[in-house]
Amino acid sequence: MAVIGYEDIVRVPKALLHDHLDGGLRPGTVVELAEAVGHPLPTTDPDELGRWFVAAADSGSLERYLETFAHTVAVMQTVEGLHRVAAECALDLAHDGVVYAEVRFAPEQHLERGLSLDEVVEAVLAGFAEGSAAAAAAGRPIRIGTLLTAMRHAARSQEIAELAVRHRDVGVVGFDIAGAEAGFPPTRHLDAFEYLQRENFHFTIHAGEAFGLPSIWQAIQWCGADRLGHGVRIVDDITTGAEPVLGRLAAYVRDKRIPLELCPSSNVQTGAAPSIVEHPIGLLRDLRFRVTVNTDNRLMSGTSMSREMALLVEAFGYGYAELQWFTINAMKSAFIPFDERLAIINEVIKPAYAKLLS
Ligand SMILES: O=c1[nH]cnc2c1ncn2[C@H]1C[C@H](O)[C@@H](CO)O1
Ligand SMILES: [Zn+2]
User: 108 CB under 6 A from ligand 1?
Assistant: First the structure.
């Protein structure tokens, strides 16, 4: 079969579960919003700024990678800023051929200019609605679900979990914790996770990125996470040799079909993986874990959903069959209701791939 080109990948429907709103701004938007609110940037040239984000995030450490968010969060403190960033996010994903996306952000980081938590969420939801409507009008329909993130070093997770549940019928489909992982185990937020379980709500946890198996174990066995944000370090529980041997935790994750939200480029930048070619996604796919492909932070990685897939096509020789498998895995693992997931799989994803695979 002919090698799949970048434009071919843009055309196929894709599903994205792990994308940060404050990690996906257009560089030009950062420049304009920063000027409007008087926030100083390393440079005001959009192309240079785009390169600055990628270079600064290319640090080999999650903590240093996260420092770059100071500039995006600073320009997302007003209703106008939040609305614009969310609308552009929907448009950019749709034009990249993403048909379903879950986009997350941490409302508690957007209160510096006096907005309330509810006002922050409402501004973002309105932005997604506007961007999605514009994308549909341009012939690029996209469905966006919002995840609310609590910062793991802070102490507002219960409040954010309640905020998420309060907006469950108007677009918020899940909850997450993010931020520096080492020293901030998921069990710090056990109350919030137990509350969400009592509410029959969905959540994922950033775990197994900058810290290893104990973090993944806590996320699943103590906190009850539906999915793992990254989870890439599950490979620490797999002994490779002629026949790979799974430890108890890795076997549990695979047996229970717990989705892994893998983010290849982000992992290389933070040092969680040495390179794309050596990224554990190759092994995890071969072992049939429920692997999904994600962007994490498009601005900090200078990437897109199509680019992440193109990198995997190049590194591992994947074809349309593998791309469809990743996409259906993601759609099966989404936090929207089952019938809606099924409709996207059967009416959008499978017909598009059927044409290419026939
Ligand atoms: O990959 C990540 N790991 C941990 N935290 C992250 C990652 N990407 C973004 N974040 C943080 C920084 C953002 O400000 C926050 C909410 O989106 O989540
Ligand atoms: Zn993330």
Answer: no
Using a 10 angstrom Cβ sphere, with 0-12 exposed, 13-18 middle and 19 or more buried, the burial of residue 169 is exposed
For residue 223, count other CB atoms closer than 10 A to its CB: 23
Ligand at shortest distance from the CA of 295 = 2
**How far does residue 297's CA lie from ligand 1's centre (Å)?**
8
Distance CA 229, CA 86 (A): 21
Residue 172 in 3-state DSSP? strand
Ligand nearest to the CA of 104: 1
Residue 130 lies in a domain: yes
Specify whether the CB–CB gap between 336 and 230 falls below 8 A: no
Residue in this structure with the two tokens 């929207």, named with its chain if needed:
336
Amino acid identity for residue 302 in this structure: G
22 is an annotated ligand-binding site residue: yes
Domain contains 181 = yes
Please count the residues of the chain: 358
Residue 172 has which token pair?
A: 């918020």
Pairing label, strands 260-262, 291-293: parallel
Q: What are 275-317's pLDDT values in tens digits?
A: 999 999 999 999 999 999 999 999 999 999 999 999 999 999 9
| Nearest-angstrom CA–CA distance, 114 and 107 | 12
Residue 8 annotated as lining a ligand binding site: no
What is the count of structural domains for the chain?
1
ipTM of the complex, rounded to two decimals: 0.99
What pLDDT digit, counting tens, does each position of 201-245 carry? Answer: 999 999 999 999 999 999 999 999 999 999 999 999 999 989 999
Dihedrals phi, psi of 15, to nearest 5 degrees = -125, 135
Q: Domain of 78: which CATH number? A: 3.20.20.140
- The model's pTM is 0.98
Ligand 1 pocket, residue 74 CB under 6 Å:
no
Cα torsion angle, 66, 63, 146, 284, sign: positive
C-alpha to C-alpha distance for 327 and 345, rounded to whole angstroms:
9
Return the active site residues. Answer: 209
* Closest protein CA for atom 11 of ligand 1: 179
Does 1 fall in a domain?
no
Give, in order, the Cα–Cα distances in Å from 310 to each of 117, 172, 304: 38, 30, 10
Domain housing 126: 6-357
